[in-house]
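Subject: design request, 188 residues
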């Protein structure tokens, strides 16, 4: 299902009128176009037919840390800004390193809940690598919580893991490694 930019533009004009603005004033004339283009860009994820190439290789653990992402909260359509940290234990093969950030981007380019995003990343990494041993931790600031309601700049941390990561010592090793790449080093 594609983005209906004409319908978005019409809806944005209606919202502007509903909040007492004049959509024809100079600063707002192109706002419906801008919002339609923004929503198209921010929701263009979910390529279901991606093929991943695996390479011969082995390691005790592969970690890609500090992958920046932004996504839209499905409850308020406001941004979440964060970082993802992904680890897996190879099963005799490794995936190209750029593919893990691509997986994060794929699932962040849709309306999201952070908890679901974290699980989707884990499931895709597991499927792409053939590994049953995967851990993903995401940290994000939710602007819906920062600029309205409670007005708190507290990040949400979501963590999922399976397989050998059920061992707490392996989780602690992962957490120790990603420490320099944690959210507070990058945002706000």
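Subject: RE: design request

Done. Sequence follows.
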């Amino acid at each position: 299902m594609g983005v209906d930019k004409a319908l978005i533009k019409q809806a944005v004009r209606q919202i502007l009128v509903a909040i007492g603005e004049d959509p024809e004033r100079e600063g707002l004339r192109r706002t419906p176009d801008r919002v339609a283009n923004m929503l198209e860009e921010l929701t263009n994820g979910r390529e279901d037919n991606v093929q991943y190439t695996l390479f011969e290789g082995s390691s005790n653990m592969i970690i890609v840390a500090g992958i920046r992402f932004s996504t839209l909260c499905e409850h308020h359509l406001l941004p979440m800004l964060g970082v993802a940290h992904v680890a897996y234990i190879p099963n005799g093969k490794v995936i190209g390193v750029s593919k893990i950030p691509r997986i994060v981007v794929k699932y962040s380019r849709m309306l999201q809940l952070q908890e679901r995003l974290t699980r989707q990343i884990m499931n895709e990494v597991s499927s792409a690598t053939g590994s049953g041993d995967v851990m993903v931790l995401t940290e994000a600031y939710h602007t819906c919580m920062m600029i309205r309601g409670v007005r708190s700049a507290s990040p949400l941390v979501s963590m999922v893991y399976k397989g050998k990561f059920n061992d707490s010592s392996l989780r602690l090793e992962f957490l120790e490694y990603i420490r320099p790449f944690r959210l507070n080093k990058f945002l706000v």
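The chain has a mean pLDDT of 93.
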